[in-house]
User: Fold these one by one.
Assistant:
Number 1:
Amino acid sequence: MTRTGPVDAARWYVAATVAVAVLGTGWCVAYLTVGAGSEAIAYVFVPVGGALATASIRRLARGGAGRRFWRAVLLAMGAITIGYAWLAVDMITHAAEARTRSTPVPAAACVALGFLIAIWGLARVPVAATGGVERWRMVLDRTIAFLGCAAALWYVGPAPMLSAREPWSRQAILLVGLGFVVAVGAATKVSYIAGGPVDRVAMRLIAAGGGVPAGVVAVLAVQFGYIASVPAQAIVMPLAPVLLTLGVAAQGRADRGLRRDTGGAGVLLPYLAMVAVDVPLVAVAFGAPLRWPVRVALIAAVVVTALVTVRQYLAYRENARLLENTRVQEERLQYEVSHDGLTGLPNRALFRDRLAAALATAGPVSVLLVDLDDFKTVNDLLGHGVGDRLLVSVAGLLRAEAGDAGLPVRVGGDEFAVLLAGDGAGPEDLAGRLLAALSRPISEHRLLVQASIGIADAGPDATVDSVLLDADVAMHTAKQGGKARFMRYADGMREPVLAYMQLGGELRRALENDEFRVVYQPIMRLGDNRLVGVEALIRWHHPARGVVGPAEFIPAAERTGLIVPVGRFVLRETCRQAAAWLAEFGPDALKEAGLNVSARQLHDPDFVAEVASALADCGLPCERLVLEVTESAVLRGRQVSRALYELDRMGVRLALDDFGTGESSLSLLRAFPAAVIKLDKSFVDGIEIDDGRPAAADARKAVARAVIQLAHALGLDTVAEGVESAEQVAVLRDLGYTVGQGFHLAEPMTADGVSRLLARQQSGALHL
Ligand code: C2E
Ligand code: CA
Ligand code: CA
């Protein structure tokens, strides 16, 4: 045997009550046409249908959101069914006098009790919570609606029953009246229970169940008198159980979420009620035999209420329009505060909200943090307009790749994110696709941008902040790993990145506290070890960590832009020191002083002017200053090129640092006014090893030879970097190098150390 589901059961009851109503109709037709059987049979159909309806309510009374209400309906329906069963038994046992018998008092009492319970149940259905004026408005509306409907129904029902030629029993009038009260109570409540436990469709069907039979019975009775009781009992009243079982089915569907209650303010009801009141008034004014002054007064009353109703309705329409405007404006405002104006993507605030909501669910949540690489350069070189359009293109790309699976957002600046919630495509897949899409030129400028992507998955007790921090850490790890890649957050990633991120703040403090020092590494003539120049190298005297080398903080200084003030300090310090040495030891003591300049400094529009003023302030001739730049810094566009040419025109010498490690060192020499080439340490390392095999050492030697030949051809000076042994010196000299820099020749030292060296050199020269 299969168990019937709640939906099937509800349908079954509807079908059963319909069957009862059809049987009743069939019998009634037979009785009225052929006069089959006894009139008493007419009273059987209502209690049978009522019993079925009562049974159908049981399930809702046991469980479900509106069970308090349905329990009252169950009781009410039970009492009404018992009352009608009593009546049926009474009629059948007194079949002969069926036509003249009035409803036995106990039966009427049961039915009346049932109606009262239904009214009580209806009264207790909670309405949508409102307070203050709104609450009073609702009470007024409902009273208007109730009285209006009741007046109209009174006019069609109990009133004519009371004044009928064949007077009705008090019981019958009472029951019709109570049926109306149930109907009007349910009808006027419907509008105010949206979103509550009791379904509105069910409530409407209950209203119809009370009102339709009561109304039809009243009209039939008034029109046809007692003869109407047969069709009333057999055809009309069995409709009440049908409507009730339909209501039960509707509530069941709503409980299982199969249908959504769309709400509704119920604002039209009072207007309808006012129109309803006018109906009997109009009927009386034109129908009844009245003296004309009374008629005029009645018509005036009708017209006035009708006009007031129209006026009220217009005011309501206007209010509704204003409310709609406000709602639209509110929505726009809401959109504006939660979206990025440039790209139209959701912004950080909305992102955080959505992330919090996603974390509250049990499903998997991942965040991709997408940071464009070197976006600043695009902005600096091509202007903000191009930068903006690039961001819009990236946003479009993000939208396309994320699809329906993820929420793309602009977190700020050149930083984007995608929120992935639920099981869909993996975040790595998406990251891979994004990088691939970015590897093609985008926007009308056919720009190539790359991005570093950090991926974080939300663990069991992740918070919005912890997930974002993880993604940030992963993204920075990707950047440090060489950009244009993605990284998934892993344990142990956090500490180094956080330390790195904190570095920015610490550097600022260090600058204020004068914690930076400059040391100088002598650049020596190979052979006689005479000092020809120095390279300034920065050191950070950290209060806790001791002396920190530039490799540990220059990248952070570049990232934060602090390299500009830090570099300014090195420039000023080096110029001052070089001028002091020249003053103390004479113009031949050292030929020049070099310092390192990073790309970020060359981008600074004030850089050239700053160099000029540093030289002027210290009285250092331009040609004594060497600015060391790397290939990657030189290849940074027009602004940098212009700065380099201006410096060259001023007479400042430019050195290509780490020469040979880049990709286009040779072609660079044509495009760039270099005066010095610094052969990178990697070509000096192991250059002296000669085991007869044409191995790596020979390759290095070949590069070193090519570089010196090139330098000679172009008339450039050379410095061999990272010289660590006498053997290397010998090989370099063989190749034609005359100047070197390295620990073997001299380590970086303080200015005093260089002064001592210069002093010794001067006295040595004197001794010669
Ligand atoms: P660089 O311009 O190539 O500077 C030479 C680096 O090689 C220095 O390291 C120096 O101490 C080291 N060095 C010199 N001779 C030898 C040797 O024989 N063997 C070995 N193994 N190393 C040797 P340092 O001072 O740590 O500087 C590292 C980098 O930091 C520099 O590389 C330069 O790119 C950057 N840097 C240093 N000072 C500044 C500065 O004031 N501004 C900027 N923008 N960058 C700087
Ligand atoms: Ca250098
Ligand atoms: Ca170098």
Number 2:
Amino acid sequence: MKLVVIGAQWGDEGKGKIVDYLAEKADVVLRYSGGANAGHTVVLNDQTFKLHLIPSGVITPEKQAVLGIGMVVDLENLFEELDGLEGSGIAWRGRVFISDRAHIVLPQYKEADRKRDAERRMPIGTTGRGIGVTYAQKAHRDGIRIGDLFDGEVWNRLSKEERAFLEPYREKIRDMVVDVSRFIHEHREGNILFEGAQGTLLDLDLGTYPFVSSGISCAAGAAIGGGIGPHSLDRVLGVFKAYSTRVGNGPFPSEFTEQRDGSLGDTIREIGKEYGVTTGRPRRCGYLDLVALSYACRSNSIDALCLTKLDVYDGMEEIKVCTAYSINGQQTRDFPAAIDRLNKAQPVVKSFPGWMQSLRDCRSYANLPVEARTYIEFAEQYVQTPVEIVSVGPSRSETILRRNPWTPS
Ligand code: IMP
């Protein structure tokens, strides 16, 4: 079975934990977009792993982890991460693979990324990891692919500086390079988990352009990243948090404001530890935005949802969700493409009573307080998509399974 996990908000939804949880039943975990701009956190027993490039499935022994076709790979970061894993006792050799079609981030692309963003009229607040520049090089047909390290024709045409930087990686990476399309074909009888990075609203086409990343982070990217056709993907799971966050600039209609919500934004940031894994930047926080979630469900054909960080709301007497936008005095449930309209959008909110108790020990849906179930079921009905997994804490065990996502729809 081929199961896709994507972010249904602006990234940082907790995909790392969900992928790690689902990886138990997977044979292969393939990451398909972005690069070292991502930060996926996995907590296992007392150890916390922070991954940027390698699929979160690598933490589980014997799983094969693949960096797919649509990725942009910073080789320095990749080997730092692999060395870190080895140091933490994760044996990765022989089970981490990389697509010959993935593109390489050169050091100068990172500098160019930072410079370009600083000079923009509307800076995006990129992670400075050279992501946009590498994808632009690719679109210009000037990029360097992993396979080019072993292609004499291309290699000999690279500049002296490029070859000097890349040379040490050639031998290190040789045994890891695969034709991903063939690799996935050969594993077609097994369970393949496609791990998305960033989120729908940061997707180059579906997101809040130009305040987006440059990869195909929506569900459709999984097919390209795995070198297969879209009808071969069996199910799409969308991950969303009980509230919303966004890092960097750009529209965020349901963002908490001091005027309306007092210090709620700071409270949620502290309880939810909402700081970027990659850059350490504080994340902007806001109400759960059902208008945006509905859009994500529709545009990715999401079959089911995974709700994370519900426990962050444990101490709240009242919880609000955004059910529509008011733009120039008119209400809408559509997610607009225009930045101007998104910036003007005021959230129309619905209030729910909080549960005022810890959810951390809940292990079944029936054990959740009625207030928590009401909150979840309202969201499900609004977006017309069932919630199959509820996460009530960072570790693997703090997870409520309502339906096994590996079961076909
Ligand atoms: P870039 O991907 O570094 O070009 O950054 C573009 C935008 O996407 C910025 O607002 C980043 O903060 C955001 N971004 C990129 N990757 C992630 C991620 O994994 N989680 C959350 N935001 C991200």
